[in-house]
């Protein structure tokens, strides 16, 4: 195709793992209209079951689910089907988790709320294409927050160790971690 997107292909199975039922259903309907065959799952356990039983060609996995971490589903999908094109969705947008997702085999990550057009474009974009530079780069506050999140993830989400490495008081770090990310 000349638009830079790959064809969906004969196997159009798309695993959608998200614990937000309205979002999952809306995305499933929208992706079905775009030629995919959605397989909804609301938990890590359901996602892992699908990955083992019938690994899909495509997957959209929420990072934080009620019963665990969506990265476990990403790993299971890559083991069961290395050619599976996986996108990670996150409402938290931390660079550290996005890097972790890509390292274990996700092809991209999107911040929520992502619409069906964004999801389809990410699933179908060729691997060698580079995304355009952001129109609105992160603010300095956001960069600081992302750095803290990255160190927190690298310290296995240990608040005390993260605070020590950042030379920050533990309570200050806890307050920062409970707040939403700055714009």
Automatic annotation (TrEMBL):
SMART domains noted in UniProt: REC
Residue numbers carrying 4-aspartylphosphate: 62
InterPro entries: ActR_PrrA_rreg (IPR047772), CheY-like_superfamily (IPR011006), Sig_transdc_resp-reg_receiver (IPR001789), WalR-like (IPR039420)
A Pfam family hit: Response_reg
Sequence ranges assigned to domain Response regulatory in this UniProt record: 13-127
Keywords: DNA-binding, Phosphoprotein, Transcription, Transcription regulation, Two-component regulatory system
Gene3D superfamilies per the UniProt record, alphabetical: 3.40.50.2300, Homeodomain-like
CDD domains, A to Z: REC_RegA-like
PROSITE patterns listed in its UniProt record: RESPONSE_REGULATORY
UniProt-listed NCBIfam families: ActR_PrrA_rreg
Protein name per the record: Global response regulator transcription factor PrrA
């Amino acid at each position: 195709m000349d638009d830079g997107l790959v064809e969906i292909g004969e196997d159009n199975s798309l695993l959608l793992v998200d614990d937000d039922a309205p979002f999952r259903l809306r995305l499933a309907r929208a992706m079905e209209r775009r030629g995919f065959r959605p397989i909804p799952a609301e938990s890590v356990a359901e996602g892992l079951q699908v990955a083992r039983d019938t690994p899909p060609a495509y997957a959209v996995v929420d990072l934080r689910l009620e019963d665990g971490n969506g990265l476990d589903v990403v790993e299971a999908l890559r083991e069961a089907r290395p050619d599976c094109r996986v996108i990670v969705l996150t409402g938290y947008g931390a660079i550290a988790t996005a890097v972790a997702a890509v390292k274990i085999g996700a092809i991209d990550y999107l911040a929520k709320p992502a619409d069906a057009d964004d999801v389809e474009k990410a699933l179908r974009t060729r691997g060698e294409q580079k995304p355009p530079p952001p129109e609105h780069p992160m603010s300095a506050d956001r960069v600081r927050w992302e750095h803290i999140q990255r160190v927190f993830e690298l310290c296995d989400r240990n608040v005390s160790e993260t605070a020590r490495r950042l030379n920050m008081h533990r309570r200050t770090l806890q307050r920062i971690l409970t707040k939403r990310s700055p714009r």
